[in-house]
Amino acid sequence: MKNHSLILIGVLACGLSATALSAEPPARWTAERANAWYAKQPWLVGANYIPATAINQLEMWQADTFDPKRIDLELGWAESIGMNTMRVFLHDLLWQQDEAGFRKRVDTFLGIAAKHHIRPLFVLFDSCWDPNPKLGRQHAPTPGIHNSGWVQSPGVKAMRDPAQYPRLETYVKGIVAAFGKDERVLGWDLWNEPNNGGGGNYPDDVGKLDATVLLLPKLYAWARASHPTQPLTSGVWDGDWSSPEKFGPVQKIQIEQSDVISFHNYDGPASFEQHIKWLLPYKRPILCTEYMARGNKSTFQGSMPIAKKYKVAAINWGLVAGKTQTYLPWDSWKKPYTDREPAIWFHEVFKTDGTPYRKEETEFIRSLTR
After folding, report:
1. Model pTM?
2. d(Cα 368, Cα 358) in Å, to the nearest integer?
3. Which of 37, 162, 332, 336 could tie 328 with a disulfide, CB 3.0–4.6 Å?
């Protein structure tokens, strides 16, 4: 009896051990797997996308304001110049509000995007602009101000409150499980500029960085627990990336946890190329998920040929001028453009009616994507 008990205990222990191991999320992709995935992709060119009829992520996706006809129209314009991806922001409150409805609308969006041969990169969290997101009707754009209604996800209060982490975990695991094996999805950008202070005239987010460092690794683990077939990333955007010793705590997590490396650059061609060279030693695919700010000397003509040379994805900020008003410069938060037009548009490719802001730009994009 004693021997049988010992054997039984051993079997149970082995079973528990196997169960514990199987419950662990998969590891980060190897560089070989990441590069094999990237070798199957075309040169990825696209924009950060929100329809002209929405001021932020909530207005884009909530049932009352979801606008598939407008999305279809605008993605047709993107397709016409050879764009094949869009970076699209989701939000945790949408899952909390209406999980089934949100999934259905994402599926509808993916159907429209696939019609136009576009595979989106979905963004789950975002640290930019308003730190206090609220469901329901969103306010009208503030006249003359760039991105006056964009909201953070999950918002600073939720980030600081560990009691909210189970809700956030449910969102991340749920949305990735729903679409993590969907061939229409390119990948998952887990957190946009996680160490960004917010921007605009919002109050400083005291304690936000500490919460970010705690939450970011959990986000990777939650997403991996749903076993997506697409890669995970989070883009570095500030500081010096020339050596690991110069990374801050957030950058270190982003570089060490991402399956594919992504970055942002809103400067001129020399800076754009330098930032790519800093990331080449990691020997992983590189995606530029934000660039193109004309007033900051970041242009299609300056950055796209460099991106193509290194086969770096080129995803600019903005497709169509609309309620986000991101054709206005960042400095509009201090000097609103209520009595004048900007000398040049900061972001966006198309006017609200589909006319190119600069025809030479759309022809240039088309010539490179062709």
Report:
1. 0.93
2. 16
3. 332
